[in-house]
From TrEMBL:
InterPro entries: Pyr_Knase (IPR001697), Pyrv/PenolPyrv_kinase-like_dom (IPR015813), Pyrv_kinase-like_dom_sf (IPR040442), Pyrv_Knase-like_insert_dom_sf (IPR011037), Pyrv_Knase_AS (IPR018209), Pyrv_Knase_brl (IPR015793), Pyrv_Knase_C (IPR015795), Pyrv_Knase_C_sf (IPR036918). The keyword Kinase applies. Pathway: Carbohydrate degradation; glycolysis; pyruvate from D-glyceraldehyde 3-phosphate: step 5/5. Its cofactor is K(+). Belongs to the pyruvate kinase family. Residues 5-326 form the Pyruvate kinase barrel domain. Its EC number is 2.7.1.40. It is an enzyme of class 2 (transferase). This is Pyruvate kinase. It holds the Pfam family PK_C. It catalyses: pyruvate + ATP = phosphoenolpyruvate + ADP + H(+). Residues 361-472 form the Pyruvate kinase C-terminal domain. SUPFAM superfamilies: Phosphoenolpyruvate/pyruvate domain, PK beta-barrel domain-like, PK C-terminal domain-like.
């Protein structure tokens, strides 16, 4: 039986991955989730790509998931005149108001409240921290004077990070609200919110989803600011998944602190039993090269060994030369490390007695029991997907097969570690249903004669209530 990977791959769509052929090939090589980056998205293109992905899923039995990633408050400088270079010690003014062409003395800043928010002594980082400025003074209205700490070429439209400034911008800009409404209309599976700082940011997005959709669309909080790391417990309570966005995070906090933050965030997500995606620069050199560096191979492997549910590609698949080969390489790395006994995820039993305590407990014991009796699969029937999240987080060695009559969650669950979902809508007596799903597991070659399998169900089965039954089957 060919080895199936359990860690999921998220690939960003872009000009390099636009054709039906490429998308099909990428899914065949291991893509589980496609990310739409709304920083560079044209609605017509997006509609077209979503249609292709759904059509391929329909025809070939994939459940490829679609993640809409909102840009968030992206601060940028304006257009610059030719070849501006700033030297350490120089002074430069950042001006808001009407856009103009920047020089080495004066640049345009797209963020209106900038002069009101910054204070003397705070840092301004540009172009992923390649340039560093320190605020000398602000007139509080339109002009901020800064001195150059680390110089270099100052290019047009480059992103600005303000690691020490308390920014008054909401995480959801007007553009994000429009993009979110569009994405909800396209019935995407997940929505990611950039530059989350407080739980309120997530509540605001939740309100938009509630207003425009009858279905639940789960939210992923992108952790890329120091405030988010500090507020992680509150953030986890209001989101359905985390993304460790190491690009901006590595600019906002010293780069050497990111590896431990990554481990801390993965652990936090696992304890909350929500999925976590590791993102940014994973296979960066493969944008232009056919082979990743040793360090990149190590990085992907370590992220899997930290316990990530998914690893993500950005430029590699959106604008890179080798969108299919990069997936092949990533799949190889994942398969070679993900079954290692060196991987530890938190396995404490659930103890907070919420109304879902019974379900959690059944899932916890199912995962442990599966490992003990070496069951080849855990099959669960679910209407909300809740049991899939729970079982996945306990990382059993067995396959996690989820059967649901809710078409919306089929593709949603594709982001979760180890989960494979099937459409199933014959909820008859328990015995018949269990036999049915076991037969499907056998037909799809997840189990063979003589294998043990664990079934989870809600009795009575026709009520589609909370899971309350665990049963061990032997495949005949």
């Amino acid at each position: 039986m060919p080895k199936r990977k359990k860690t999921k791959i998220v690939a960003t769509l872009g000009p390099a991955s636009g054709s039906r052929e490429t998308i099909k090939e990428m899914i065949a090589q291991g893509v589980d989730v496609f990310r739409i980056n709304f920083s560079h998205a044209n609605y017509e293109d997006v509609k077209e790509r979503i249609a292709i992905i759904r059509d391929l899923s329909e025809k070939h039995g994939y459940n490829t998931s679609i993640l809409a990633d909102l840009q968030g408050p992206k601060l940028r400088v304006g257009i610059m005149s030719e070849d501006v270079i700033v030297e350490p010690g120089d002074q430069i003014k950042f001006c808001t108001g009407k856009e103009f062409k920047g020089t080495s003395k004066k640049v345009y800043m797209n963020y209106e409240n900038f002069p009101r928010d910054v204070k003397a002594g705070e840092r301004i980082l540009l172009d992923d921290g390649k340039l560093i400025f320190e605020v000398v003074e602000s007139d509080g209205k339109q002009e901020v004077t800064a001195k150059v700490i680390q110089g270099g070429p100052l290019k047009s439209k480059k992103g600005v990070n303000l690691p020490n400034t308390d920014i008054s911008l909401p995480a959801l800009t007007e553009k994000d609200v429009n993009d979110a409404i569009f994405a909800i209309g396209q019935e995407v599976d997940w929505i990611a919110l950039s530059f989350v700082r407080h739980s309120q940011d997530l509540m605001d997005l939740q309100a938009i989803i509630n207003e425009h959709s009858e279905h639940k669309i789960p939210i992923i909080a992108k952790i890329e600011k120091p405030e988010a790391v500090a507020n992680i417990d509150k953030i986890v309570a209001y989101c359905d998944g985390l993304m460790v966005a190491r690009g901006d995070l590595g600019v906002e906090v010293p780069a050497q602190e990111v590896p431990l933050i990554q481990k801390q965030l993965v652990l936090r997500a696992k304890k909350a039993r929500i999925p976590v995606i590791i993102a940014t620069q994973m296979m960066e050199t493969m944008i232009t090269s056919l082979t990743p560096t040793r360090a990149e191979v190590n990085d992907v492997a370590n992220s899997v060994m930290d316990g990530a549910d998914a690893v993500m590609l950005s430029g590699e698949t959106s604008v890179g030369k080798y969108p299919v080969q990069v997936i092949q390489q990533m799949t190889k790395i994942i398969k070679s490390v993900e079954d290692s006994p060196l991987i530890n995820v938190p396995e404490e039993p659930p103890h907070i007695r919420t109304k879902r305590y019974i379900t959690k407990s059944v899932c916890y014991h199912a995962s442990h029991m599966a490992n003990e009796i070496e069951a080849k699969a855990i099959c669960t029937l679910t209407n909300s997907g809740y049991t899939a999240f729970q079982i996945s987080a306990w990382r059993p060695a067995s396959h996690i097969l989820v059967f649901t009559s809710n078409k919306r969650i089929l593709t949603q669950l594709n982001l979760l570690w180890g989960v494979k979902a099937f459409f199933y809508d014959k909820f008859v007596s328990t015995d018949d249903t269990v036999e049915d799903v076991n037969q499907i597991a056998k037909d799809k070659k997840f189990v063979k004669k003589g294998d043990m399998l664990i079934n989870l169900a809600a009795m009575p089965i026709t009520d589609k209530g909370m899971v309350n039954t665990l049963r061990v089957s032997l495949i005949e």
